[in-house]
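Re: that chain you flagged

S.,

Sorry for the slow reply, it's been a week of failed gels. I finally had a moment to sit down with the sequence you sent. For the record, here it is as I used it:
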Amino acid sequence: MNEPAASTPSGAGRAQPLMSIGEVLTQLRADFPDVTISKLRFLEAEGLVEPQRTAAGYRKYGWDDVARLRFVLTAQRDQYLPLRVIREQLAQWDASGEAPERSRPALVAVGPDGEVPGRAAVQPVESAQVRLDRTQLVARSGIDESTLGELERLGLVVSDPPGWYDGDALIIAGAVAGLAVYGFQPRHLRGYRTAADREVGLFAQLVAPLARQSDPAARARAAETARELVALSQQLHAALVRVGLRSTLGR
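Prediction finished late last night. Pasting the structure tokens below so you have them in one place:
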């Protein structure tokens, strides 16, 4: 079914050679191996890029569109920015006539192994496809076997499938190892599990209807919505903790 032609965003670049969505995917895959056609369609639906349309309704992208997509994907990957913030910055550029390739975000420098200088070694860059056995998880996170057993008993770390752990398990175990330096024990962390479960219940009500749809674009939207909710939740939690510690710090 043909789709109506999309409006042309502000800025030059429409006299450029145009590419199909598959060709754009090829351009982006080298730097963003997880990007998919569904993801590109989702970003269009969110108003972050507006490719031209042929008379038959096929998307056609210029190099300015590719630069715009690179900016969005980089800001998500390296700064964990929600789409709302990225959209606002792009709108400012559109209004001023600037372009993403001429005005880059203040991105965080990332090392060759995904580490970020000045941050803890374990970063949320591991995907759900990561598989670590028990020995590997203990070695990479810095916890010991008994601590891992306690985390599993409390439901903070889950092996899935049995005997194998994903990247999130590594992040959790690494954070626990860091907190242990300050005297925290697994039993002190029950509240985190309880609070997380409450958030999961709230967020699931928002994303489940989209995730259940057969439309790949809807499922991609569900994944992006979940990502944004997690990012906003992290910001809210960090701010509340900072506010709560001000009196202790005498600020």
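What I noticed first: Residues 188-251 form one domain.

Talk soon,
D.
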